[in-house]
Specification:
The chain is of the alpha/beta class and about 270 residues long. It has a domain of about 120 residues. It is about 40% helix and about 15% strand. The chain is built from 10 helices and 8 strands. Strands 2-1-8-7-3-6-4-5 form an 8-stranded mixed beta sheet, sandwiched between helices. A hairpin with a 4-residue loop joins strand 1 and strand 2. The chain is globular, with a radius of gyration of 19 Å.
Amino acid sequence: MSAGQWFIPGEGTAVSHGEVLANAARSRTVLLGESHDRPDNHRWQMHVCAGLLALGRKLVIGFEMFPARLNPVLAEWVAGNLNEAEFAERAEWSTVWGFAIEIYMPIFRFARDFGIEMLGLNCRRGLVTEVGKDGWEAIPDEMREGLSPSKPASSAYRQYLFDITGGGRPGRKATSAEDPGFDRFVRAQQTWDRAFACRIADRLAQGDEVLVVGIIGRGHLEFRGGTPYQLADLGVEDCTVLLPHIADAPHAAGQGDAMCTMPVKIEPPAER
């Protein structure tokens, strides 16, 4: 597949940009996956958002990168009340996210330029750690950030998580996806999955006919085992998953609703 070409994973059947976006625009929510360190993924996300906006949908863009408590800061940015340096500082970027803000700025600028509401989808990192260690029931109600407990992971999702974290590599404590020793990681991952789903579902419940676009790491989206699975449990089943694709990488049926081939990654020249 050439750069910019959409296709159906598993089949390899090419579909047009217009067809993919038209179908996605009819959804209640569109989830755009990413590999966090790839600038091309973030530019692609911005272009998809621009296409959805051009089709007449009122967008809200939700970001894994921000906890929901920072929504007032995101609103100030969209309103034009902060410059970029102030935004980075007020949004606590250096502590809430570990990747260079420059690669995300195009989509942040897009939201501001078009007055698009930005939504923090994340929770505090400590909640993820605590649920992973002790389970949801050990968390006091006042520390749950308004989230509900995750629907238990399917066997397929456990296997997916086990495989992408190294499978049965030598020396690993958990010997299989169903090993109780893997439960802590699964609980932690599902805390993120559920947080993103709850924030999206809560925004959709406001009833103003918005299309919520989620900017989320692809591991939470592939094969619909993470955030889409939790959204369905919350009654939001009309969800489209679109993913960027590295040319010549394998793909499988059900990995997403459609995938778009990224350009060949060009590394910066070595310093002399």
